[in-house]
Amino acid sequence: MLRLDNQNVYYGESHILRNVSLEVGPGQVVCLMGRNGVGKTTVLKTIMGLLKSRTGKVRFGDEDISQDSPDRRVRRGIAYVPQGREIFPHLTVRENLRLGYEAGPADPNGGSEKAAYDEVFSLFPVLAQMLERAGGVLSGGQQQQLAIGRALLSKPKLLLLDEPTEGIQPSIVEQIENVIESFKTERRFAILLVEQYMEFAARLADTYVIMAKGAVVASGRAAELSEEQVKQHLIV
């Protein structure tokens, strides 16, 4: 479904991604791991078209989307929940969700708009109770639920999640983990999940990719992620 080939990305003259290649198959959950600052978020921004690489290609399905704008990539079926959530604080919950729905393609299965919203509310019931509340007054956990709900309303084929449980109270972490687990069970779309912690990756991912110093240094089945690899590449 998604394939990155030899991505080299720079911030000014700083070489951030170094020949990064990875694949995410249909319905697969892939966990991108590594210490802070190794380039994980840069990978997601490159996939989303928010950053341009100097070399390499981004392929989605059978298409080379390297030159596509971010909004074009959303219409193709890529949704992004960034670190920090980036909901629109002065818009209501309803308006934030509406932006996600309007950004995506038409539902290929002919599903109704109401059904799309009902699904989000079934996953995150608190959002249905706060539709007229400004996004900026929500708690961090509620904002994360809103950000994921907004992404789901764009009808993704691939969902990019950047540390979705960071800085969130344990009860909502558990809820978000259960939601991701349900996505994995359904295999309705693929997920590329940025995460630092072995336990979270082992529970949710089919495969893992570990980065260090801007490069991919290890990859494989999540069930085979070894303690040695964790000590070498993940423990800060």
Textual characterization of the structure:
The chain has a single domain (2-91, 158-233), classed as 3-Layer(aba) Sandwich (Rossmann fold). It is built from 9 helices and 10 strands. It has helices at residues 40-48, 70-76, 93-103, 113-123, 125-128, 140-152, 170-186, 198-204, 227-233, and strands at 2-11, 14-24, 29-33, 55-60, 63-64, 78-81, 158-162, 190-194, 207-212, 215-221. Strands 6-7-8-3-9-10 form a 6-stranded mixed beta sheet, sandwiched between helices. A 4-stranded antiparallel beta sheet has the order 2-1-4-5, with helices on one face. Strand 9 and strand 10 form a beta hairpin. It is globular and about 45 Å long. It starts with a strand and ends with a helix. The model has no long low-confidence stretch (mean pLDDT 90).
Largest sheet, spatial ordering of strands: 6-7-8-3-9-10
Beta-strand share of residues: 25-35%
C-alpha end-to-end distance: 32 Å
Helix content: 25-40%
Residue-averaged pLDDT: 90
User: What integer value in Å does the Rg equal?
Assistant: 17 Å
CATH architecture descriptor: 3-Layer(aba) Sandwich
What's the CATH superfamily, by name? P-loop containing nucleotide triphosphate hydrolases
* Low-pLDDT windows of residues: none
Any idea of the CATH topology? Rossmann fold
Brief descriptors of the model:
236 residues; alpha/beta; Rossmann fold; six-stranded mixed beta sheet; four-stranded antiparallel beta sheet; globular
Set out the fold topology.
Elements: E1 2-11, E2 14-24, E3 29-33, H1 40-48, E4 55-60, E5 63-64, H2 70-76, E6 78-81, H3 93-103, H4 113-123, H5 125-128, H6 140-152, E7 158-162, H7 170-186, E8 190-194, H8 198-204, E9 207-212, E10 215-221, H9 227-233
Parallel strand pairs: 3-8, 3-9, 6-7, 7-8
Antiparallel strand pairs: 1-2, 1-4, 4-5, 9-10
Helix pairs in contact: 3-6
